[in-house]
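Researcher: Structure for this, please.
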Amino acid sequence: MDRSAELQYPVVGVVGAGVMGVGVAQSLAQTGHDVVLVDVSEAALARARMGIRNGLRAVTLFGSAEDKKRAGDPKAVLERVAFTTDYGRLAGADFVVENVTEKWDIKREVYARLEGVCRPEIIFAADTSAISITRIGSVTKRPSQVVGMHFMNPVPLKPMVEVIRGFHTSPETLGAAKRFLAEMGKTCVVVEDAPGFVSNRVLMLTINEAIFLVQDQVASAADVDRIFKGCFEHKMGPLETADLIGLDTILYSIEVLYESFNDDKYRPCPLLKKMVDAGLHGRKSGRGFYTYE
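Model: Predicted structure, token format:
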């Protein structure tokens, strides 16, 4: 069903075709938006296309009745996504969500490119787990139109988003962000701009400490996760969650917290660093604390 006439933001630019960018693009396409998905290489875009196909299968297998209804026909969903390396295609976007890796030099360069092609009234939503929204806004000509939008993985199956208000983020931008998420069928909680915000300031410490437990041979990864699932009724344990997010992303996020607070409690576990150096990044690499086919 074509919903474009009902949408305030019918064309959405999604920058970064990694795990989160793919999830955001899929979720938008499922809700009737036309998506321009931008990345730096054709290889990344080919992986993204396959990722959306796999994501649609996951909704079919594990999603609620409402999720399945929203997903619609997989072929139609894919046809709403334009895969491109050309930032110029974002000139027609009504809203932009940036999902590139959690490295400041890379993000700063992306926003310079966005400024060069996007219309002046367009809002930039930064999908980041730790980097300051105020800092991102400072490298643009529209800081009042920059907002944090921390999606959770897998995006199509998560109904809530953590929205972050930067120092200059205007009430109008927050209102637009809420309307945009409502078009995706999602609710949000607005929090202030502080390192790690709410979710990752707590979650990254939990994951990091769980990795220390494995390093110190207190328990195996499987037993750590079993305790969290069996005792606290969490759907996933902290190390399963780490594999899902990506251990490289976990490390980047903890390093940002460590740098921001200058507090030893955010010191990355040496085992985490070793695993990232070894290329054991979790699900996306096929091996992390667990092995994936």
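Researcher: Any notable elements?
Model: Residues 42 and 75 are 20 Å apart (CA to CA). The chain has twelve helices and eight strands.
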